């Protein structure tokens, strides 16, 4: 099958392209770096010619409210229109567990808008909702840092390895369209503050993590279960500690 991976040079996208190619598919990584820009439409018709499936694992370069909304609505609209013209029969997109429970966050409002465009497009689709990637913990810490203090909610989180996310996205791409959402998560629920504290400690990072129920998460106040999936989620076994031990970056 010819499968075009929009955002195929990114963290998840590059792994998805590798996994699909290993299974004998013609997996094409498409992104501005390879001359395909979903915001402007540049290169889209050309790369989609002959494709059966499109996987969208792109992300907005800016998380600022208007920029991220503009990114996901414009790029998804352009992409879905080009897929219809090209005769694509399955659109797969990656989103986040709890997206519809975070309306105070500009990022998550944009992800909801992206999902609505897909579900209302008339194209056969599958949505994969993943929890936060282990690889994203550093960015969560950075966004919540003030001086030497990292202020975070004690709400539950159930993070997952990007490798396991990519496995699911690749499997979904070669399967029949779900016409719905699949939830995936890692093996353990813990407090968001606890997760980031563990990550910083294991890396020898001196910042102090303070639990604060009013600390916003990318603009939204979390309830205890906002970020964790429902009972039907597929749960992967890779733990944060195992993943950290495999990273090439030495602990400081
Ligand atoms: N972070 C998390 O914990 C988490 C959890 C669940 C779901 N997700 C979702 O996972 C998805 C992928 O995240 P990621 O971390 O793998 O992203 P990433 O590493 O930041 O990669 C983003 C990709 O998007 C591409 N891109 C940017 N602008 C584009 C444009 N105008 N046209 C086409 N492609 C464009 C980039 O291409 P270039 O390399 O050419 O710039 C890159 O390949 C996101 O949609 C996010 O919402 C994230």
Describe this structure in words.
This protein is α/β, with parallel strands linked by helices. The chain is 36% helix and 19% strand. The chain has eight helices and twelve strands. The strands form three sheets. A seven-stranded parallel beta sheet has the order 2-1-3-4-5-9-12, with helices on both faces. A three-stranded mixed beta sheet has the order 6-7-11. The radius of gyration is 18 Å and the shape is globular. The mean pLDDT is 96. The structure holds NADP nicotinamide-adenine-dinucleotide phosphate. The site of NADP nicotinamide-adenine-dinucleotide phosphate (NAP) has 27 residues, from helix 1 and strand 4. NADP nicotinamide-adenine-dinucleotide phosphate (NAP) binds next to helix 1 and strand 4.
């Amino acid at each position: 099958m010819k499968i075009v991976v929009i955002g195929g040079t990114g963290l998840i996208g590059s792994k998805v392209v590798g996994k699909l190619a290993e299974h004998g598919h013609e997996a094409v990584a498409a992104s501005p770096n390879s001359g395909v820009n979903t915001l402007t439409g540049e290169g889209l018709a050309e790369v989609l010619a002959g494709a059966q499936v499109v996987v969208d694992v792109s992300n907005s370069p800016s998380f600022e409210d208007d920029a991220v909304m503009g990114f996901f609505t414009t790029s998804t609209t352009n992409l879905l229109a080009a897929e219809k013209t090209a005769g694509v029969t399955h659109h797969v997109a990656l989103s986040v567990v709890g997206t519809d429970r975070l309306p105070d966050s500009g990022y998550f409002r944009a992800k909801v808008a992206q999902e609505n465009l897909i579900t209302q497009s008339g194209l056969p689709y599958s949505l994969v909702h993943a929890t936060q990637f282990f690889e994203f913990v550093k960015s969560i810490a950075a966004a919540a840092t003030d001086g030497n203090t990292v202020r975070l909610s004690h709400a539950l989180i159930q993070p997952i390895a990007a490798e396991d996310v990519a496995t699911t996205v690749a499997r979904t791409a070669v399967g029949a369209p779900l016409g719905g959402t699949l939830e995936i998560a890692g093996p353990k629920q813990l407090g968001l503050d606890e997760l980031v504290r563990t990550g910083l400690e294991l890396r020898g990072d001196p910042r102090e993590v303070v639990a604060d129920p009013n600390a916003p998460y990318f603009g939204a106040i979390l309830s205890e279960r906002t970020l964790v999936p429902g009972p039907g989620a597929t749960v992967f076994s890779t733990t944060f500690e195992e993943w950290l031990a495999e990273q090439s970056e030495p602990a400081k």
